């Protein structure tokens, strides 16, 4: 009775998180050109805002939000993730976004808290 | 006494993990030049091998390993991470590696179970 989710498994909703993160990115760098001076602020803002939105959902998860912004200049970029966790309750989602001058890749990892 | 020992074994040790990751990247990419058709294998190989090595440590952690491989051609790349977790038990470490044609950035996040 006192337990938060007595018997009910709460799993990560990747779609919702994806929508939330896209909005954060649009709000921060939508329509702006790559600017070396500002890119540090942008990555920091994106991860902080995304994290705040995710935590607001009030679910029993620990979160990790990762953001990479790359200038469009023809260089090749590859990313990969691998996770060692409980596949029933934990999950991740990755959002790829771009505009005229840059790519932005945000990954969210959610790990269930067992207490 | 027992408590002290068990907290040593269950801590996230950044140095050990950094060494494991560095070795994995060296072995997988080493001095190879950036090649678009092999890059997928490299990223997959780095994360899988790293994860295998980490799980062999036998600590009570869930792990997330991310790897970024970038061709050196003058483009700017910035990354940031933000984490909502238990500061006393969870931890992360990032390893930056490069050779003549490639940058490789690997991040490991460990969350205590």
From TrEMBL, chain A:
Molecular functions per Gene Ontology: dynein intermediate chain binding
Q: Which taxonomic lineage does the organism of this UniProt entry have?
A: Eukaryota, Metazoa, Chordata, Craniata, Vertebrata
Compartments it resides in? Chromosome, Centromere, Kinetochore; Cytoplasm, Cytoskeleton; Nucleus
The alphabetized list of GO BP terms reads:
cell division; microtubule-based movement
The family classification in the record reads: Belongs to the dynein light chain Tctex-type family.
| Keyword Iron on entry | no
Species: Coregonus suidteri
The superkingdom listed in its UniProt entry is Eukaryota
List, alphabetically, the GO terms of the cellular component aspect: cytoplasm; cytoplasmic dynein complex; kinetochore; microtubule; nucleus
| Keywords from the UniProt entry | Cell cycle, Cell division, Centromere, Chromosome, Cytoplasm, Cytoskeleton, Dynein, Kinetochore, Microtubule, Mitosis, Motor protein, Nitration, Nucleus, Transport
- Protein name (Swiss-Prot/TrEMBL): Dynein light chain Tctex-type 1
Q: Pfam family example for this protein?
A: Tctex-1
- UniProt keyword annotation of Cell division present: yes
> Whom does it interact with, and what assembly results?
Homodimer. The cytoplasmic dynein 1 complex consists of two catalytic heavy chains (HCs) and a number of non-catalytic subunits presented by intermediate chains (ICs), light intermediate chains (LICs) and light chains (LCs); the composition seems to vary in respect to the IC, LIC and LC composition. The heavy chain homodimer serves as a scaffold for the probable homodimeric assembly of the respective non-catalytic subunits. The ICs and LICs bind directly to the HC dimer and the LCs assemble on the IC dimer. DYNLT1 and DYNLT3 compete for association with dynein IC (DYNC1I1 or DYNC1I2).
Described function: Acts as one of several non-catalytic accessory components of the cytoplasmic dynein 1 complex that are thought to be involved in linking dynein to cargos and to adapter proteins that regulate dynein function. Cytoplasmic dynein 1 acts as a motor for the intracellular retrograde motility of vesicles and organelles along microtubules. Probably binds BUB3 as part of transport cargo. Required for the efficient progression through mitosis.
Kindly give the InterPro entries that the UniProt entry links to this protein: Tctex-1-like (IPR005334), Tctex-1-like_sf (IPR038586)
Automatic annotation (TrEMBL), chain B:
Cellular component terms (Gene Ontology): cytoplasm; cytoplasmic dynein complex; microtubule
What does the record list as GO biological process? microtubule-based movement
> What domain of life does the UniProt record list for this protein's source?
Eukaryota
Tell whether Cytoplasm is among the UniProt keywords: yes
Q: Which GO terms describe its molecular function?
A: dynein intermediate chain binding
A Pfam match: Tctex-1
- Which terms are listed as keywords in the entry? Cytoplasm, Cytoskeleton, Dynein, Microtubule, Motor protein
User: Could you tell me which PANTHER family the record lists for this protein?
Assistant: DYNEIN LIGHT CHAIN TCTEX-TYPE (PTHR21255:SF4), T-COMPLEX-ASSOCIATED-TESTIS-EXPRESSED 1/ DYNEIN LIGHT CHAIN (PTHR21255)
What's the protein called, per UniProt? Dynein light chain Tctex-type 1
């Amino acid at each position: 009775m006192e337990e938060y989710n007595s018997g009910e498994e709460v799993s990560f909703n990747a779609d919702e998180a994806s929508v939330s993160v896209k909005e954060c990115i649009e709000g921060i760098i939508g329509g702006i050109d790559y600017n070396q001076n500002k890119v540090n602020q942008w990555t920091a803002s994106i991860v902080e805002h995304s994290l705040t939105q995710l935590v607001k959902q009030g679910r029993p998860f620990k979160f990790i939000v990762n953001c990479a912004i790359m200038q469009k200049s023809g260089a090749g970029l590859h990313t990969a993730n691998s996770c060692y966790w409980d596949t029933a309750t934990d999950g991740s989602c990755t959002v790829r976004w771009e505009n005229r001058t840059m790519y932005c890749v945000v990954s969210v990892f959610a790990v269930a808290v067992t207490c | 006494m027992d408590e002290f020992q068990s907290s040593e074994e269950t801590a996230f040790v950044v140095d050990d993990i950094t060494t494991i990751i560095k070795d994995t990247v060296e072995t997988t990419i080493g001095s190879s030049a950036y090649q678009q058709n092999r890059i997928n294998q490299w990223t997959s190989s780095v994360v899988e091998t790293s994860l295998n090595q980490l799980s062999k440590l036998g600590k009570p952690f869930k792990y997330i390993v991310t790897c970024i491989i970038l061709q050196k051609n003058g483009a700017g790349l910035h990354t940031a991470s933000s984490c909502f977790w238990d500061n006393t038990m969870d931890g992360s470490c990032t390893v930056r590696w490069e050779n003549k044609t490639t940058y490789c950035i690997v991040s490991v996040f460990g969350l205590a179970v």
